[in-house]
Amino acid sequence: MDKDLMVYGVTYPYQLPQLAYPLDGLEPYVDAQTIQIHITKHHQGYIDKLNKALEPHPAYQQRTLEWLLMHLDALPEEIRQAVFDNGGGHFNHLLFWDSMNRARGGENLPSGQLMQAIDRSFGSFDQFKKRFELSALSHVGSGWTWLCLTPDGKLEVVTTLNHDTPLRLGWYPLLVVDVWEHAYYLKYQNRRPEFIAAWWNLVNWGSVTARYEKALATFAER
Ligand code: MN3
Fold this sequence. Notes:
This protein is mostly helical. The chain folds into two domains: about 70 residues, Fe,Mn superoxide dismutase (SOD) domain (Helix Hairpins); about 120 residues, Iron/manganese superoxide dismutase, C-terminal domain (minor pseudopilin epsh fold), CATH 3.55.40.20. Strands 2-1-3 form a three-stranded antiparallel β-sheet. Helix 1 runs antiparallel to helix 4 and helix 5 crosses helix 6. The longest helix is centred in the N-terminal third of the chain and has 23 residues. The model has no long low-confidence stretch (mean pLDDT about 95).
């Protein structure tokens, strides 16, 4: 890997992000109670455990979260699993909150350069959506479904297990949905397809486009 992929570039001590919407801002697609528990219990829990694991390791406190996740093999063995689980947990949730926007009415679609890239890579937006849903719905267990830009300029969909990230593939993550049951179980119970169908209404294509531009620039600099 000749260059680290920076999406947030955050370092120790890690903390919750400021959300662009209130806890009930994703209603009716995702309920306020789910968001509140998800942030204050699940996400905060990963942050606390990540900070605790790095506390006795000042050398790694200066490293960005992306660096840690891209160099797991270089980490001391006693913190490797904790960084994989909780660092991944923190990074993935940062992107998940950023991938959504306050619910609005009307059609929710990407535009401009990003839409053209989706058409080029998947044939059409509908084909992309089908591919993304198939990946999210056929995944067994906990995980995350991503849209990424690869170093050769192609958009790809991938689902990772537990808290794994596509950073390790050298892919720049643009959009992600959390398919752990805690992301939807209170409202949707076992009905993951209904959750995903509702979630499309929340996708913040503006933030995805901003990351896409950053990803293009990152790969162009190599
Ligand atoms: Mn989660």
